Amino acid sequence: MTRATKIETILHDKNLVPRLRAIADKVFAGQRLTEAEGLLLFEQGEISFLGALANFIREKRHGDNTYFNRNFHIEPTNVCVYDCKFCSYSRMIKKREDGWEYTMDDMMAIVRKYDGEPVTEVHIVGGVLPQYDLDFYTAFLKKIKAHRPELHIKALTPVEYHYMFKKAKTSYAEGMKRMKEAGLDSMPGGGAEIFHPEIRQQICGDKCTGEQWLQIHEEWHKLGMRSNATILYGHIENYGHRIHHMEQLRQLQDRTGGFQTFIPLKFRNQDNQMSHLPEVTTIEDLKMYAVGRIYLDNFDHVKAYWPMLGRNNAQLTLAFGVDDMDGTIDDTTKIYSMAGSEEQTPAMSTRQLVNLIRQVGRRPVERDTLYHVVKDYTEAAFEEDEEFKGYVSLPVLN
Ligand code: V47
Ligand code: SF4
Q: According to the model, what pLDDT value does residue 332 have?
């Protein structure tokens, strides 16, 4: 179904309740939804209705373009002083012998492993430990930049920053300034979980609060820098908490414009203290992506993190507001395989990722972290590309 027919279907659906019709009208007119309207979408929006609205916005902003980048991950440690109930990393100090704690040399060896590879970004995130302090990370970032100046460093979250700055007796503003001077290029979206204290207190009560998370991003944006934002959904929160979370993000984005991408992360239930909770259905995943796309009218991009969702579901999200598939990842990324994702060893080559996107009729576009186009995989570029020679692509479904 084309975009135009989908919209026609919505407008002529006699069964559409007036309040949902009014929301559709607002979306088509590019108007902002209220919190009550966002909640109504979650509570009463049929999945096809949500998909059509989200896809309308997605295609208005990006057409069929579906972005990905080539990056690699460094996870300094899987031991953490915090005790987030959903995290398969929260092995705490008492089980420290089960974990790894990389030295700066270990991590520089990982950086060097990618010398000559066409990666544009390193994503650094992991557990929180005292030895990884402000002096350590500023020295590490400087080393990376000295070795490979053009590599974009997307590193650490307010969870680490809050801990490090407190230890260094430094303000958020001063701490972020020091990180920028050391070579930090952008901040990933992790650590957001659910901002509402009612839930945050229960699932990750000992780390930075939602307000602190937002303040640190705000200081970073004030320096003219960009970051991402996540939500961890599908556990003990309700739709109201999700809307509250997105409302905080929307307000901050109105003030600074510093967020690039919204990344819903589905709670996975293996090997953590919340394993007794069932995981939500694929329909619920699609709802989260679609409402996220519709509600966050001041965010450019919505990303599906495929190692988390699985490849087929990630493909589905491309019809529910998602325009970004994150990166091609090798098997150094352990966080999700430990939490019970389908992708036990998440690895996907650029070829596979490009094909996955083409299979559902979208146009793969390789980007750098700041969404500059690195390579546009139009049909012609695809056919001519050395990397794809001899590769039989799967049929493209329209
Ligand atoms: O903050 C931990 C989540 C996040 C589980 O910015 C879990 O480009 C689900 O933020 N089930 C870290 N999620 C990862 C992250 C991220 C990933 C990819 C790209 C970007 C980006 C950011 O992982 C944590 C937490 O919310 N997480 N445990 C779990 N059991
Ligand atoms: Fe530590 Fe992050 Fe896991 Fe929480 S989610 S226990 S802060 S690694």
A: 41
Nearest CA to ligand 1 atom 10: 190
The DSSP bridge pattern shows strands 186-187 and 226-233 to be: parallel
| pLDDT < 50 regions, the chain | 331-338, 343-345, 391-392, 395-398
Paired with 375 in beta bridges are 366
Looking up tokens 């570029």 gives 381
Q: Does the pTM exceed 0.90?
A: yes
Residue 310: what pLDDT?
A: 87
For position 392, what pLDDT does the model report?
47
304-336 per-residue burial string, b: 16 or more CB within 10 A, e: under 16: bbbbbbbbebbbbbbbbbbbbbbbbbbeebbbb
Ligand 2 nearest atom to the CA of residue 80, by list position: 1
Measured by CA distance, the residue closest to atom 12 of ligand 1 is 190
Ligand nearest to the CA of 230: 1
Q: How far is the CA of 107 from the centre of ligand 1 (A)?
A: 20
Q: Domain 65-388, what architecture? A: Alpha-Beta Barrel (3.20)
- Cα–Cα distances (Å) from 50 to 20, 90, 288, 305, in that order, read 10, 35, 10, 20
234 pocket-lining for ligand 1 (C-beta < 6 Å): no
Please give the distance, rounded to the nearest whole angstrom, from the Cα atom of residue 81 to the centre of ligand 1: 17
Q: How many angstroms is it from 151 CA to the middle of ligand 1?
A: 22
Residue identifier of the C-alpha nearest atom 23 of ligand 1: 190
User: Where do the domains of the chain lie?
Assistant: 65-388
Evaluate: CB of 326 within 6 angstroms of ligand 1: yes
253 within ligand 1 shell (Cβ under 6 A): no
Distances (CA, A) of 77 to 80, 124, 125, 126, 145: 8, 10, 9, 6, 21
Q: Is 1 helix (H, G, I), strand (E, B) or coil?
A: coil
What is the pLDDT, as a whole number, of residue 351?
Answer: 84
For ligand 1, atom 14, the nearest C-alpha belongs to 190
Residue 232's nearest CA partner among 292, 283, 276 is 292
* SS3 annotation, 82-122: CCCCCCCCCCCHHHHHHCCECCHHHHHHHHHHCCCCCCCEE
